[in-house]
Design goal:
The chain has a single domain, classed as Up-down Bundle (Lipoxygenase-1, domain 5), CATH 1.20.245.10. The protein contains 27 helices and seven strands. Strands 3-4-5-6-7 form a five-stranded antiparallel β-sheet. A two-stranded antiparallel sheet has the order 1-2. Helix 5 runs antiparallel to helix 25, helix 12 packs across helix 23 and helix 20 packs antiparallel against helix 27. The longest helix has 41 residues. The chain is globular. The N terminus is likely disordered.
Amino acid sequence: MWRESRLLLRSPLVIQHIKCHARNVSLLQNDKDVDNRKMNLQNARKKYKLEQNTFNLSEDQKDQVDLVNVPPLIHKVPKEEKRSLVHELRFLFENVFYGEYQKHFGKGNLTIQEMINHFRSSWILTEPKGCEVWRTEAVDDCHQTPLQRAQADHWFAWQRLNGVTRNLIKRVHEVPQEFVSSAYDIQDKHPYLGGISLTMHAQNGTLYAVDLTDVAVGAQTPEVPIALFTVWKEKLMPVAINTYACDANGKVLKPSTLGTAEDIRDWVNARIWFNMVDAQYHQSITHLGFTHMLMDGVSVCMHRNLSDRHPIYKLLLPHFQYMHIINKDAKLALIKPGGFVDKDMYFGHVHMLKLIAILNKTWTYQQNASIHASLNLREANAFIFCLSEIPGYFFKDDALRLHGAIQQYVLEYATHYYRNNDLNVRDDQEIQAFREELVRPRSMNKGGGCGMNGIPEFDNLQTLVDVLTNFIYICSVEHSATSFPAYDQYAFPPNFAATLHGHPDDAVIGLNVSMPDSKEFFSAISVMKILTLVLTNSLGNYKCTYLKSMDMDGRIFVKNFQQNLEVIRKEIYDRNADIIKGNNKNQVQEYTYEWLLPDRVLNSISI
């Protein structure tokens, strides 16, 4: 299907053929058949309804979760939103296959070395990147060299920039309070501070923090961490981790390239536990809450308020393909009582929903919907603040490229259909109704909206373009960067564990003691394999049905979009080639980043 839709745009003959079948594309104020349009829209409203879901919570659990602040979901998935037969069969096959794989191998316990051996010997599973790094850098091995230790530390820092959670690292201009009392000990013989104090690094704009203390939301947990990072030899490197930042007596650990494996085991263990808490944030907020759930309501509002003749409906529709059905699957299998989240993640589904509700209550369009706003808020966009760049922030570079291409596409498209006239936007009753339901307060009763704070008035073309661009970006770029590296990150627990056992202090016995059991280990592999399935086309390569619904002008804008994406693809390939060429085997090497190559970014939240 991907090849088919690509050919559609490359062949002028095919485009001419499609034109004969293109459906009417018009704004309400220009439609010659308003009565039929309104009747069809009324029918759509019967199929697409918003609901504040209760997720089968008990009364006690409902008291813990502020359900009205969880993003609303579709009440019932219409048949039009179901997967194609081919994709449904593939989805079911993957579920059954990896379910059986887990049943066969998921017995007893595995040591870290046995996990490595399983990946290395398997004919089915590829070795995830996290396992490869652990193995090649000889982590927790008595023969690990200082260079290997530094390389493993850089990988930990690289995960903050280019892993599954890439939106938390921020520049700090003062030493965070959680590290003030330990500053001298941290600075003493630190391998990556270059003899410069934490205070000077903060003043120089080269001190960064990732704060995961909000993840606990009052739960009793042995790890509530915050970590510091700096730049050393043009690489981001870790400075220290406070493992329990909510307590004045939290344990602060720092890296070292000297000593035995036993001497630095506490540090390695701190990295493992930090990443496990990061995994809870990732699945709750970065992934489920603020891609899947957030966009589910946007899609419902689009179907309820925009006629299928509306040009913006045709623009957005490909970016919602299969989203409602995968969200239903997630609700029934992953976040149900006793589902994957309860059984195989550290925090259960109640905690996850509680965290989503708390952060969604304070979510605003201005701060949270835009990659530019996120980077600026965290002072991670150095150009804006005239500060030094965070080296190796490849996600940022590629995301901004793609955001720019999407914005150019939406601008050309919307400018054409609104005739470059702000008055046409203001007079468009359907687009105004779309916004009204987006911002309407959420309600546990019927009639509530999405309650999206800060969506600006659609009173001019540029504002509308910005909002639509950010919606498409979240459905495509943000979700792909969040979801598709998951197997590489999660499959090997020492790299990025969905759950751990015991207490961080148990590392004195050895790292194996906290590892998931075999059932949990293979369950995470199974889920991550399914969650990285490719079921829809890559960004800008739209299915025939979507192209056929457009007119010739719309398809020309799509073709321009594809050409811009091809330029970006080449830029990313060239950048990665330069990274490989520039790496020196005698120094800490940089990792390439490929997850935002346009042909690896999907149009929609389909998995």
